């Protein structure tokens, strides 16, 4: 295989109906696919939830024949297993923001044990952080509060009712205790520093090289749209983000980063074109922002 491709899923590869509307230009709106061009890849409570375009489906299947594709998501194990992503089954998948590595669909207990030890050594406990968070929120603006695989927590909030500056103030408390806070859409994540996608990607790459699947010089390519993807993107040999999402709002840049010209679900296709181009020509990097 010529490269390892680590890609975020939601709002990068797959899109809900709402996420499809992230188009910011008239051309994006004009190119928005009709229902006949969409493939449902996730059903939840009996209702279609996430989609890819038919073109993206074909490109993703083709890409898995020439490169190692590793889904890398902040979703929990159970949430990831709801997705019928084209190109599956996956030898490796990364869930829970790097807290779990799935091997042939099964969580790797050795990896998880190491993450748990790093969390215990790295600062405040999940219980301590959760207790402090509970003191700072209330039902007037928090719609739900959940713990993901006993690794981190996230809130679903009413953005209009959320107190101004909450995320920044909460992050300030967290950073001194080995944690961080960030917002992705209506979700606010509280994440320990020990749980990150880049470490999990490095572990998967090491295993693939040891198994002879990847050459030692094979590059890592990555894609993602949220602040929790930034460490994975900056650690990759070359990376791309869509022109929407949290990183776009932050105008996040990196010397090896490209940015799509389109937004919304059209960006998903553009990212796959970018991956395919670099795999086809040996994954050589280009100038920042260049897209072929």
UniProtKB/TrEMBL annotation:
This is HAD family hydrolase. Gene3D superfamilies: HAD superfamily/HAD-like. It comes from the Bacteria.
